[in-house]
Amino acid sequence: MEDIIKNHIEGSATIKLRVVETLLYDIEQAAQLCIGTYKNGKKMLIAGNGGSAADAQHVAGELMNYFRFDRQPLPAVSLSTDTSVMTAISNDSHYRNVFSKQLRALGEKGDVFVALSTSGNSENVLEAIAAAKEKGITVIGFTGETGGEMADKCDHIIKIPSCDVAKIQESHMCILHVICELIEQAMFPREAIEATHAREQREQQRMKDGKSPRSV
Question: How far is C-alpha 156 from the chain's CA centre?
Fold first, then answer.
């Protein structure tokens, strides 16, 4: 059992180190696209299947609420959460349209669509990308190392250097957290400085009280 635990954690860490070595520029460019979208008063839409659906919902929550510090909410919509809409589209039309119909209804020119697919071949995600293109919505894709069919369909793509679905998803979520932090820092610089100062004061007080420092 210990070997399984060790191998999984070390394998995940190895992939993330490869991300650091090869994808820093791509991550920065993705963050800049999102920041520009918010500065222009637009929003993010996010979608994926299975674990990627959970990631879409997770990121929307971080942006609508907050990631590192309390601040004004940022508009972000997960297209993977409204079960009434999703089942209606799937039942009456086809599951491949489950995201594209929502994008056509909710998306506006200037928005960003974050498309999550470990294979890069999810049919409903590809349909949503096509719908986004029709509406002038910028597409940022997150895939595995080949990029699949999404590779030449996205405006910007982040391809995790792995074929292991679990490791790809773990790296997707790590990068999405980084992008959330970069968005917050850019959109709310004063609040970011105040939050850092407050955190430092808390840690200084903990040290005075003889407690070990902790990350927040």
Answer: 13
